[in-house]
Amino acid sequence: MTSQTSSVPVPIMVTRSTLPPLEEYLGYIRQIWDTHCLTNNGPLVRELEQRLASYLASPHIWFVTNCTAALQIAIKALNLQGEIITTPFSYVATTSAVLWESCTPVFVDIRLGDLTIDPNLIEAAITPRTRAILATHVYGFPCDVAAISDIARRHNLKVIYDAAHTFGCRLDGRALATFGDVSCLSFHATKIFHTVEGGAIVINDDASLAERIRLTRAFGHHRDDHRHLGINGKNSEFHAAMGLCNLVHLDANLARHRRQHDNYSQLLSGTSVRIPRPESVNLEYNYAYFPVLLPTESAVERSLAALAALNIYPRRYFYPSLNRISYISGHPCPVSESAAEKVLCLPMSDLVTPELQEIIIGTLVAHARAPA
């Protein structure tokens, strides 16, 4: 391996949006032009929801504007008021949704191995005001869903999963996005499956909750029957068209990510750079991200500077630990804080060749070894 080379001709970002063949997308766009149906639960939105329901083997899935809106709608539809136990190691939208809905986030630290919420710490954080647990399947690594379900059942709590990273993941043969009372998916352009902008809400069993969520994302009414408070969380036919195209190519995208993941892992074997791993067994993983933990924060900063000089841009994802954001009040979470200081997600896209992976890993290893 080598860490020395001239810069690459185009920026290599941590992700690069996949696009289907243009003619495939234009085929759907022509349908939109023919029908003049652009939004308001159009035929392509309904078709995408049906295909997603089949893929996830879930009876209730609603296509929405984004994952943040999905989380907000879930909190509102579950009538949550009070405290929500959550993770400090996630994208800020997870906590923002809690605050936006006038609930109080209560942070519980994470497990060192897979960086998901530590179920052994949850019960100590429960108070008479606790109403739910909102946990993130970090990088598609499953939370301990059995332990969380048991805690929630014993304390009469709802469970919401931020499942933004999970599309294509299956646990014990079941789509990871179907656990909990509600799971929220992201179909943002950076995700392994995307609709440009978008997300989805998955409800596995509760038909009445599913209907409430369906209405909540559409102003809370059906025609002239105004049933309860709602917002505009609908998505458009154009976004659904992109999803219908990308779903066809998902398997090829997953396979490429796995090849790159395996090559990164091999190149890092025997080095001081640690690779977080899922703790769950019987996991069919999507390999959407390749996170690493460097020995120190200064090694992260040196690596970022050296790679940027080569036109390569990994990302500190997630950073900072959410309990340390100035406008959020949180207790110390030392495992999350340490992970946030040391984590980098490495580039994964169609532009990332094996040769480029050698350059990236060579640079990381060289700066991981260097003195602080």
UniProtKB/TrEMBL annotation:
Pfam families in the record: DegT_DnrJ_EryC1
N6-(pyridoxal phosphate)lysine PTM sites in chain numbering: K191
InterPro entries in UniProt: DegT/StrS_aminotransferase, PyrdxlP-dep_Trfase, PyrdxlP-dep_Trfase_major
Organism lineage: Bacteria, Pseudomonadati, Verrucomicrobiota, Opitutia, Opitutales
Keyword Kinase: no
Keywords associated with the record: Aminotransferase, Pyridoxal phosphate, Transferase
Recorded family membership: Belongs to the DegT/DnrJ/EryC1 family.
Lineage top rank: taxon: Bacteria
GO process terms (BP): polysaccharide biosynthetic process
Entry annotation: catalytic residues: K191 (proton acceptor)
Protein name per the record: Aminotransferase DegT
Organism name: Nibricoccus aquaticus
MF-aspect GO terms: pyridoxal phosphate binding; transaminase activity
